[in-house]
Design brief:
Elements lengths: L10 H7 L4 H8 L7 H7 L26
Length: 69
């Protein structure tokens, strides 16, 4: 079952553009989205950091990128 948040998730387009990140998309977005840290935070009403990966780790964003320093 596909994650209901794929349309609004800022990481989803990145996953689609980067073949190397397709594993994230296949595992979390299209299969076990309940295990996604982003999904869990959104369900609890907490603001999801733009650089939070599905496994709960933070992606380092380049300076000037939304959420980057």
């Amino acid at each position: 079952m596909k994650c209901p948040n794929t349309h609004g998730c800022p990481l989803f387009p990145l996953f689609r553009m980067k073949t190397s990140l397709g594993v994230w998309q296949a595992h979390y977005c299209e299969d076990k989205y309940e295990a996604c840290a982003r999904y869990a935070m959104s369900r609890s009403g907490v603001r999801v950091p733009p650089n939070l990966l599905p496994n709960g780790k933070e992606l380092t964003l380049p300076i000037g990128a939304p959420g980057g320093r």
